[in-house]
Amino acid sequence: MALEVVLGLAVAIYALYYLCFVGKEPEVYHCSREGSVAARLARDLPILKEKFWPTPGLDNTHLQTLLGVVGRRRVDIEFETECFPLADGGELYLDWTVAAKDPMVTCVILHGTQGSSRSRYIRHVPSPPHDSINRQFLRKGVAQNWRCVVLHQRGCGASPLRVPKTFHAGLTADTKEVMDAIYRRHGATSQVIAVGFSLGANILAKYLGEEGSRAKVDGAVLLSNPWDFCSVGEQLSQGSSRLYCRLLQYEMNGYVRRHWDQLRQIECLSKKQLDDILSLPSLFDLDMYLAVLPHGFADRSVPVRVVEDNENIIFGLTDRGGHLAWLEGWDFWEEAWMDRAVVQFSKALWSQMPKRRLQKIHTITDPTTSPLRHA
After folding, report:
1. Do 285 and 333 lie in a common domain?
2. CA quadruple 241, 242, 243, 249: dihedral positive or negative?
3. For residues 210 and 303, what is the distance between their CA atoms, to the nearest angstrom?
4. 130 touches 99 (CB < 8 A)
5. Residue segments in the chain with a per-residue pLDDT below the cut of 50
6. Domain residues for 256?
7. Can you give the pLDDT at residue 296?
């Protein structure tokens, strides 16, 4: 009896704490000038005005991150793999979802560190209606027939490493080649958006900054971007976060093992043995050999973020959630907050696209399939 009372009291206290302190609206930063792209888009993004309520019991950052990796259901999706040749002789694998007729949205996905099209956080991005992953989006009637493609970085997933050159958080040349090609193929018949996860978000942000108005994309969503790698590095080397550091190093060691025949041709690795690299004491020592030295960096750089002076950026910061994990509701293994955010952004982007761009798309595709008709 006493145990039941204690448990009941604990549940009541947690419920009070949850209702009073857990759910909060995201902090939102964007250019407030009237008529700016960001201001217009923000008005069409209700998710940025709603409180984010993490799954009860999973309001801790580390629990969110862990369950985001192992708790979300991996959905079987049919892919068609394209071998995309690069100008320097390298090769990337592009995994395309099998789209239905005349998809109105082409979504280019950039994975995180050592991610791939098999990553759970990627498989919950909207895909064509006949895939089971899209059921929750169809219920809300906001995702209609997306064509998705996962851009694998050099050597990631099943992608081979054809030349002795690695990828890193600042390498945008490969992304530019792929985005140019995809826009040539599908830009005339669909909206093209890009979604970057973690490291992929940083690559995408740098690509957008370098290309500016020349970027071959109508809009982009960046999720869990590290932004400041020095600060992130310090956090990963402290306390319980060191576990993430060890896991990342384990994954990177697997990358080294798979591609050692190519990697050993890089000058800074040419006099090293495989065991020398695998036994490096930390992830940051490994990063020095795979990213900093091979690509000629003097040191790790600190990116500069300017939001409120740029009319094309909306920055949202939630008080809770994990890395690539904004789990909400009791069925957290299905849809997450970030999935809804991506879809809402695409829908808002449609409403703000220049008329000449929309007219170009509608003259080629069947207008009855447009998501604008179901807004």
Report:
1. no
2. positive
3. 13
4. no
5. 121, 124-143, 298-305, 356, 358-375
6. 232-302
7. 57
Cβ burial of 9 (10 Å; 0-12, 13-18, 19+) is exposed
- Shared domain for 133 and 245, answered yes or no, is no
Residue labelled with tokens 């950052």: 61
Cβ–Cβ < 8 Å for 290, 153? no
Query: Starting at the edge strand that comes first in sequence, how are the strands of the sheet with 191-197 ordered?
Result: 79-85, 91-97, 146-151, 105-110, 191-197, 219-223
Q: For residue 126, give the CATH number of its domain.
A: 3.40.50
pLDDT digits (tens, 9 = 90+) for 269-298: 877 788 778 877 777 777 777 776 665 554
Q: Does residue 152 share a domain with residue 90?
A: yes
Residues 154 and 39 in one domain: yes
Instruction: Give the whole-angstrom CA distance, residue 249 versus residue 243.
Output: 10
CA 45 to chain centre: 18
Read off the pLDDT of residues 173-217 as tens digits, 9 standing for 90 and up. 999 999 999 999 998 888 899 989 888 998 999 999 899 889 999
Q: Are residues 250 and 107 in the same domain?
A: no
Residue 11 resides in a domain:
no
